[in-house]
Each structure stands twice: as structure tokens, then as C-alpha cells.
Here is the input.
Amino acid sequence: MIKCSECGYENMDGLDYCDGCGAKLAPGAGSSAPAPAAAAPEAASAAAPTEGTDANAAPAHSDGAATAEAPPSEAPTGEIKPETAPEPESAPTAAAAGAPFKAKLSVVRGGRKGQEFPLEDGNNLVGRWDPETGSFPEVDLDADDPEAKISRKHALIRIDAGKITIEDIGSLNGTYVNRQPRLSPGSPAEIKSGDEVIIGKTFLKLVVEPIS
Here is the structure.
């Protein structure tokens, strides 16, 4: 196409005069469409990476120092955490290690006055020696019971978790604490240091001493 310099009419190639205004067309005039401008050397050089450099490298500041990429905010999901040391086991309590005291029964009346019977952790059978079975109770009152008022298996004293209880186990003449009514068989009653226990006609006193 040939563009007329006078009126701007677009004429077909090969014409000498403008179809719009009749003006003389310049010989050899090219198409009116402007040729695409070549890219500026500076823009081309900036867009194209220089040979031997990494295209993904961080842009440089004006002073030549490269901008450091910020580290990721989260740790890798596959990171293995160090194992924590197991917590030390707590020391056994006084109840687990045994009662923190020593307990005993002391005869105060009706037998060998002053005779003592140490009590152990757990069960302590109170009664008399049984010749038929050969069993000896922990608190054997055979020598303190000339009238046989004490049953061979009379009562049970138990020390557990720092507590002392006494229970009648079906005796003939009963078990008493501090002159109170007779204990019901199978019903433990808690006793403490200084309490009086009556077995048959024998009077005993509970003595509890702390372990230093």
C-alpha cells in the first residue's frame, strides 16, 4: 500500500496518482504500516543473561552486593527430633518402703507385766500357740493367759500404709479397745500409740516410736 502524503489516503501499490485527492504519489513509497522498532541495546542486554552466569541468581545492588535469599520459615517436615532422656523414676514413698515407725504391744495387766511383742509390717496374729497345728502367732499370749481366756486365733493387727488396725476374728471372749464396746468380728478399728487393747483378761498398750 502507498500512503498519499497530501491526504493520507491508502492507495494500491503501482499507482502514480492518489485515488483520493489525485496528488502525485511519491515513487517507491512503502507501506504505511510502520516497521517494528528494534529493541534498544540496553534493554536487550538487560533481558538476556550474560554467558556464564546463572539466570536464577539474585539481582545485584548498585554497590555490587547480591541480595541474600531469605531462609525458609519452617523446618523440613522430615526433620528428626532428638530423643529426650527418660525421666528418672521417683524415689519410693515411705509407705512403699515400709512404715516409718516401730510398733509394739506391751503387757500392762493380767500377765507378764512389761512383756513386749514387736509388730511387723502387714498381718500380726494375736492368740496362743496351737499344739495341734504347731503354729505360733506373732503375738503369742499363751504364757500370759493361765485361764485360757484368749482364743488360739483371737485377733489380727495389721500395719499397712502407715496405719495400724485391729480386728476381732471370731474370738470367744471378744476384743476391746480403750474400754469401748466389743469389736464386731470382721470390722477393723484403727488404733494409735497409747491405746489400750484388751484380749481376754490381758491388758496391752500399743507403743509407736518413729524411726530416726
